[in-house]
Amino acid sequence: MAVDLPVNTRKDKHQMNIERNVMKTPWFKRFGWLYLPASVSGAIIALATVAFCVQVFVVVDHKSHSASDTLYGVLPFFACAFLLFDWIAARTSGKE
């Protein structure tokens, strides 16, 4: 005797897989426009971003001749680093 399954069984299984794969501990918490680390993983990501930006600033500032040279030199790196940070933080923050 065959058991008739509801039409939306595939959807229910898919939804169960999504719910099972949801992160248990959020890495970041949203604070206005910013994201603050809420776990060790979040703190490591934040510190790595800041360390990268400091390293880029020191290297670019060493070779530049003026403040505008430094600004133009670090801007692409800072923008990419903080956009990546924002992307990671937005996807690993807890639901509020």
Question: Overview of this structure, please?
Answer:
The chain is mainly α and about 100 residues long. The protein has helices at about 10-20, 40-65, 65-90; strands at about 30, 35. The chain has a domain at about 40-95. A two-stranded antiparallel ribbon has the order 1-2. Helix 2 packs antiparallel against helix 3 (about 65-90). The radius of gyration is 22 Å and the shape is elongated.
Contiguous low-pLDDT stretches (5 residues minimum) are none
What value does the average pLDDT take?
85
| Overall 3D shape | elongated
Helix/strand class: mainly alpha
Number of helices: 3
Distance between the termini: 46 Å
**Level of helix content?**
55-70%
Q: What's the count of strands?
A: 2
Strand fraction: 5-15%
- Spatial order of strands in the largest sheet: 1-2
Instruction: Tell me the Rg in angstroms.
Output: 22 Å
Q: Major sheet: size, sense and barrel closure?
A: 2 strands, antiparallel
What pattern of helices and strands is seen along the backbone? HEEHH
Brief description of this entry?
This protein has helices at residues 9-20, 40-63, 67-92, and strands at residues 28-31, 34-37. It is mostly helical and 96 residues long.
Q: How would you summarize the topology of this molecule?
A:
Layout: H1 9-20, E1 28-31, E2 34-37, H2 40-63, H3 67-92
Antiparallel strand pairs: 1-2
Kindly list the characteristics that best describe this protein:
two-stranded antiparallel sheet; mainly alpha; single chain
